[in-house]
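Private note to self, pasted from the team thread so I don't lose it. Backbone tokens:
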């Protein structure tokens, strides 16, 4: 999944940077809904990763039935956190 396309889809043509608070809230709700109903593992993981970047992701163990996918999500969250720490 293309990040720019996801941001455009959920938050409008300017992406999240130009979205007002109401648009962001609506976009996150739509994202949560799409995550809940998505059945393709790769697409579901991509939606979860975007939710994670926005601070809205559910716990990986609750979000994914497959333990390998949950582990991958935990690993992703750990790596993202470490990368953010290095930017500070």
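Design output:
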């Amino acid at each position: 999944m293309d990040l720019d396309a996801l941001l455009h889809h959920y938050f409008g043509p300017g992406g999240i940077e130009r979205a007002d608070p109401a648009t962001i809230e609506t976009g996150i709700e739509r994202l949560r809904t799409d995550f809940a109903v998505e059945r393709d593992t790769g697409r579901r993981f991509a939606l979860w990763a975007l939710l994670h970047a926005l601070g809205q992701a559910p716990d990986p163990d609750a979000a994914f039935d497959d333990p390998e996918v949950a582990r991958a999500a935990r690993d992703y969250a750990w790596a993202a956190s470490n990368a953010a720490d290095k930017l500070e």
